[in-house]
């Protein structure tokens, strides 16, 4: 037995909105056998644009029962049935969420008439309910009202049942089928064609624009995990509705995938990625020459288009490194902006220091250059050599002078120890401290995969 459902609501996601009308058509596989419909008092103002769309006003629902008063009837109508709707995950998330709030745990198999329409009636210009019904000659005089749309969806489902020559409905209902949990506009074939390998995957909208980038140890398994569960939140419901296509890049290792994900998020700036978008270098160690010709070192907030000698996450880390250089190379704390008061210089030069003008710019700058050279020398240059995408290649990630340089793939027989030759096989990528840290942590965890350069 099938239960064909349509609802009208105060907004687009269940956790912050309410149902204003619900209609259920019970269908025995041949025809509708029972209908149920009721307005629902949402106990809140219906937004004006919703009123304009549905025609349901605040006055119409004022005397209607609240959802909890009809929850028992709704639950018993749906329990044990196959839940069907046009874009089923939207309707199911709302009904299940509000039934749970009333004390009922709804667990149903689902069928989506959007997805079934694409499979059974391929090649149509649109699969929205209104356009699909017009194309197929299905009358719906109460568009955007629950009973009108439920009746139209029931007639559509009957038509799909009659035309399902390849048993798509039966296949979708199999226990191991992922069909019913997939986004409405994403073909199942797009998921089945994904590999079970490490890599990066991209979700695209209807225009082909990338809206989400993710990394995975197993691409197919990770992509499928996005579609499980019934999270009623706005972001998830909108996210699922906007997925129309998936592409991917196979990577040799999960580490390569992790780095590529960070690079691609910065490059593409996808709508639904959050955390890595916010990651930026917080601070940097900079050098500049003042009007008197003295080379000055300073820790400052990261400047996007100014090259830093060293980048770090905190001001404390930057000042600690600068203090070490001041002590080792007898630099002036005032010229390095460590000492900002008007007291005498606390550096080793004191009254003969560069800040007094007694130590010449030429002499002082030589010490600064030595300090910078030592800083660069202390920053490691190494490669991570690891598994490739095939048995006859290896992946390589290169860190040069403490900064992520890039990554690529080399032959199994290539001698990675030659830095200049290795660079011919490495694709440079923009880096940041996030990438630098995950590569450094990996090198520390797996020292046998690290190749150091003098």
Automatic annotation (TrEMBL):
One of its GO terms (cellular component) is cytosol. It holds the Pfam family GIY-YIG. GO terms for molecular function: 3'-5' exonuclease activity; DNA binding; DNA-directed DNA polymerase activity. SUPFAM superfamilies: GIY-YIG endonuclease, Ribonuclease H-like. One of its GO terms (biological process) is nucleotide-excision repair. SMART domains: EXOIII (SM00479), GIYc (SM00465). InterPro entries: DnaQ, GIY-YIG_endonuc, GIY-YIG_endonuc_sf, GIY-YIG_UvrC_Cho, Ribonucl_H, RNaseH-like_sf, RNaseH_sf. Residues 196-274 form the GIY-YIG domain. PROSITE patterns: GIY_YIG. It comes from the Bacteria. CDD domains: DEDDh, GIY-YIG_UvrC_Cho. NCBIfam families: dnaq. DNA polymerase III contains a core (composed of alpha, epsilon and theta chains) that associates with a tau subunit. This core dimerizes to form the POLIII' complex. PolIII' associates with the gamma complex (composed of gamma, delta, delta', psi and chi chains) and with the beta chain to form the complete DNA polymerase III complex. DNA polymerase III is a complex, multichain enzyme responsible for most of the replicative synthesis in bacteria. The epsilon subunit contain the editing function and is a proofreading 3'-5' exonuclease. This is DNA polymerase III subunit epsilon. It comes from Mucilaginibacter corticis. The lineage of its organism: Bacteria, Pseudomonadati, Bacteroidota, Sphingobacteriia, Sphingobacteriales.
């Amino acid at each position: 037995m099938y239960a064909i459902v349509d609802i009208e609501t105060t907004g687009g996601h269940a956790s912050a909105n309410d149902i204003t009308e619900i209609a259920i058509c019970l269908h025995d596989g041949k025809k509708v056998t029972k209908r149920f419909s009721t307005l629902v008092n949402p106990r809140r103002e219906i937004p004006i644009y919703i009123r304009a769309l549905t025609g349901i006003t605040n006055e119409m629902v004022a005397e209607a029962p609240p959802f909890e008063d009809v929850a028992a009837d709704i639950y018993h109508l749906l329990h044990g049935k196959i839940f069907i709707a046009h874009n089923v995950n939207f309707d199911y998330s709302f009904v299940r969420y509000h039934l749970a709030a009333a004390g009922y745990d709804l667990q149903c198999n689902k069928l989506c008439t959007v997805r079934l329409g694409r499979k059974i009636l391929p090649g149509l210009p649109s699969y929205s309910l209104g356009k699909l019904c017009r194309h197929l000659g299905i009358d719906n005089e109460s568009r955007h009202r629950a009973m009108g749309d439920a009746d139209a969806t029931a007639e559509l489902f009957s038509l799909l049942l009659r035309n399902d020559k390849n048993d798509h409905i039966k296949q979708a209902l199999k226990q191991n089928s992922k069909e019913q949990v997939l986004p409405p506009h994403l073909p199942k074939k797009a998921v089945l064609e994904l590999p079970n390998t490490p890599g990066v995957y991209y979700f695209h909208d209807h225009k082909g624009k990338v809206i989400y980038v993710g990394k995975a140890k197993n691409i197919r398994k990770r992509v499928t995990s996005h579609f499980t569960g019934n999270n009623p939140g706005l972001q998830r419901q909108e996210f699922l509705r906007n997925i129309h296509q998936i592409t991917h890049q196979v990577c040799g290792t999960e580490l390569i995938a992790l780095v590529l994900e960070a690079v691609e998020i910065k490059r593409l700036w996808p709508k639904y990625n959050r955390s890595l978008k916010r990651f930026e270098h917080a601070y940097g160690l900079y050098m500049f020459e003042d009007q008197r010709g003295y080379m000055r070192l300073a820790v400052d907030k990261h400047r996007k288009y100014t090259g830093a000698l060293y980048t770090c996450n905190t001001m404390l880390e930057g000042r600690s490194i600068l203090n070490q250089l001041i002590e080792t190379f007898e630099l002036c704390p005032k010229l390095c902006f460590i000492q900002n008061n008007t007291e005498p210089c606390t550096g080793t030069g004191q009254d003969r220091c560069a800040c007094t003008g007694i130590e010449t710019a030429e002499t002082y700058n030589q010490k600064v250059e030595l300090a910078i050279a030592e800083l660069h020398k202390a920053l490691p240059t190494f490669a991570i050599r690891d598994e490739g995408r095939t048995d006859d290649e290896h992946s390589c990630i290169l860190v040069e002078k403490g900064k992520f340089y890039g990554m690529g793939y080399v032959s199994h027989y290539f001698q990675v120890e030659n830095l200049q030759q290795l660079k011919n096989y490495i694709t440079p990528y923009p880096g940041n401290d996030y990438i630098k840290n995950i590569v450094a942590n990996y090198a520390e965890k797996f020292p046998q995969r690290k190749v150091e350069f003098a």
